[in-house]
Amino acid sequence: MKINILTIFPEMFSAFRSVSIIGRAVQSGLLEIACTDIRAFSASKHKNTDDYPFGGGAGMVMMAQPIMDAMASVSAGLPGARRIYLGPRGKKLTTALARELSREAELILLCGHYEGVDQRALDACTDEEISIGDYILTGGELAAMVLVDCVSRFIPGVLGSTESPEEESFSDDLLEYPQYTRPRVIREMAVPDVLLSGNHAAIREWRRAESLRATARFRPDLLDQARLTERDRDILKELKACSSES
Ligand code: 21W
Fold first, then answer.
1. Reported pTM
2. With a 6 A CB cut-off, is 10 part of the ligand 1 pocket?
3. Whole-angstrom Cα distance, residue 146 to residue 246?
């Protein structure tokens, strides 16, 4: 997948695209992340990219001209790309949307900063607006990284073969079970015995029960949507009985 990010802070993406799983995906050619500096397209003498809002009010608004020209330049090289504005009014990024976006060959991401972007640039040069959640950021760059990170996990080959993004299994409906690594004991805290037993059926059962326990405790709302077996429901009843004791 080719991704081009339009931003006035391209340097924010340098660590993101060179380390860890995203760095490896870029190195191996599964992912291409290019940044386009919107400022380079400013036609004004001082390379301004923002100006005062018409009608008054606090803050600055990103000017249409540099964005429209940057978008025209990038779009010429990626004519079929979906053009996404990261903005607080957008539809919320979910697993389903990330999976859908992972099937695109090309994405263009526009990051705003300050109090937003001249609406005419959004109308003329973007296809949709996406938000990463109901809280206010200072700009779209972190949101773009969240989107790229989340979408990349669904591109075949980006995760190692042992770490599939879903296994299309029931486990993605629930919170995770706790994990442990060496040593077996630290500061008198031991790893649960079952994980050392070598009994893979028992380990699977324990992990499922721990996922159900964590979900019931921290995100009971998720249980309404989750795909649960009869065994799961029995475990939940048991957990409820235990938690109401004492
Ligand atoms: C914050 C831009 C507030 C605009 C009247 C009109 C991208 C984001 C962002 C930002 C405003 C995302 C105003 C979740 C986010 C982002 C910066 C509104 C005031 N008043 N997802 N406009 N949250 N945020 N400006 O903030 O760019 S995706």
1. 0.94
2. no
3. 43
